[in-house]
Amino acid sequence: MTQGIYKTGVAAQRLEADAYAENFSDLHPAFDWHEAQVEADRCYFCYDAPCQTACPTDIDIPMFIRQIAADNPIGAAKTIFDQNIFGGMCARVCPTETLCEEVCVREIAEGKPVQIGRLQRFATDTAMAEQKQFYQRGRATGRRVAVIGAGPAGLACAHRLAMHGHAVKVFEAKEQAGGLNEYGIAAYKTPNGFAQAEVDYITAIGGIDIEYGKALGRDLAVGDLVKDYDAVFIGAGLGAVNSLGLGAGDIAGVENAVDFISELRQADDLAGLPIGRRVVVIGGGMTAIDAAVQAKLLGAEDVTICYRRGKENMNASEFEQDLATSKGVAIRHWVKPVAVTSEDGAVTGVEFEYTRLEGGKLVGTSEYFVEPADQVFRAIGQRLDETVFGDAGVDLDGGRIRTDAEGRTSHPKVWAGGDCTNRGDDLTVTAVAEGRDAAESIHKALVG
Questions:
Q1: pLDDT-derived band at 414, boundaries 50, 70, 90
Q2: What does the alpha-carbon distance between residue 305 and residue 377 come to, in Å, rounded to a whole number?
Q3: N or C end of the chain: smaller count of CB under 10 Å?
Q4: CB 96, CB 317: distance < 8 Å
Q5: Distance between CA atoms of 125 and 32, rounded to whole angstroms?
Q6: Considering the chain, what percentage of its residues have pLDDT values greater than 70?
Q7: Structure confidence at residue 37 (pLDDT)
Q8: Secondary structure (3-state) at 408
Q9: Does the structural domain 5-25+242-378 have CATH classification 3.30.1330.30?
């Protein structure tokens, strides 16, 4: 360990033992039966409901809420799962405040929408707790499909293909399935191992074989898979992390936010995770919020998110920004990093330049300041590792795989969905929709 601020500033066990469980408890506790009934009664059951139109998976929201109101949560769960087999996770992590709940008639009229996400969780949790399975594998077709990535897009595709009777082989680079649901979402949003419980629930349909430790470009080549399988679906996500470009790669204490979140999600003992006293997070999306909030919950004294544009330009929703500030995270806008300061090889701070818009273009103001830090997290986005597609025969668009509305790529035997495509928007619910729709397209192609 190097000497200096990093040695004294980053440490484990900053909090009392029982504080970790409290800090990382469920962000939105589940409804009980009475609460669900009361909330369901607030729904107007709109015809041509705007909430359903706003849902990327097109769940019949008025229908499932009516079923809850009729004391039929199992029926409500089937209505949800028919469109979104990841309905349980999406109930927890969807930005409902900018999707279904934003356009709720109650929100427009009263400023208080029906809590659609929590009602969806009530229904899906009930079905999963009772191990109620609504689907079974279809009669075997003799067709084999390879799926790259066991995240939301890949498993949604695999589940729908299994329903149609196709044999599915899923190749996953990590040691567990779930993708970002398992490795990339704040622990307080999905506590108690829910991500893996949902994977088990989904794969219980049968016909889905998952092989772990198989990474595209290292262990797999799309060119080989198209020879061995009748179709290939790519749901590999975005594996490469954007660089700050400030030459900070060798400075201790400068880390990728996605790696920090992943380590936290897989930790058996949160008290054993080292965290700085003064933490700076660079970025303005959900990853930045999740990293900053969790740093604070681990015991960091000062946590600051720094973003180069204004509040309204942040990819993180206003709800998530407010959540961060409610936990004591400071958010500084209109600042961009220009240098990382260090001492004895360890980070001591980040130098920023103030920014502004001139003619619609972001420019620096030549005014600078240094934000002290003993730990810095980069959360400036991820990108596709284009080198793994050398033999794939698929066209790229803006650094992502080009697909049509059904997920078809330029290769006749290859489909794709989720964040790795030019249609992805880094939302679990969108990845699920694209995986589901690609499976239907693959099925049509295989059986005519």
A1: very high
A2: 9
A3: C
A4: no
A5: 11
A6: 98
A7: 98
A8: strand
A9: no
Tokens 């959540």 belong to 323
Q: By C-alpha distance, which of 270, 330, 302 is closest to 25? A: 270
- Confidence (pTM): 0.93
Closest C-alpha among 234, 296, 197 to residue 442: 234
Burial class (CB in 10 A: 0-12, 13-18, 19+), 326: exposed
**pLDDT average, residue stretch 37-43:** 98
CB within 8 A of 353, min separation 6: which ones? 335, 336, 338, 364, 365, 366, 367, 368
Per residue in 214-263, pLDDT (tens digit) is: 999 889 999 999 999 999 999 998 877 888 888 777 899 999 999 999 99
Position 6 pLDDT exceeds 80: no
Phi, psi of 243 (to 5 degrees): -95, 150
User: Model confidence over 324-353: pLDDT tens digits?
Assistant: 999 999 999 999 999 999 999 899 999 999
C-alpha 381: how far from chain center: 12
Classify residue 310 by its DSSP letter: -
Give residue 8's pLDDT: 54
Q: CB neighbours (10 Å) of residue 135?
A: 17
Calpha distance 146→152 (Å, rounded): 15
Distance set, CA 6 to CA 65, 254, 279, 338, 379 (Å):
52, 10, 11, 21, 20
Is beta strand 240-241 parallel, antiparallel or unpaired with respect to 144-148?
unpaired
Domain boundary assignment for the chain: 5-25+242-378, 33-129, 144-239+384-447
Dihedral angle sign, alpha carbons of residues 253, 254, 260, 263: negative
| Rounded Cα distance, 169 and 259, in Å | 27
Mean pLDDT (the chain) is 93
Whether 311 has a pLDDT exceeding 60, the answer reads yes
Domains 5-25+242-378 and 144-239+384-447 share a fold: yes
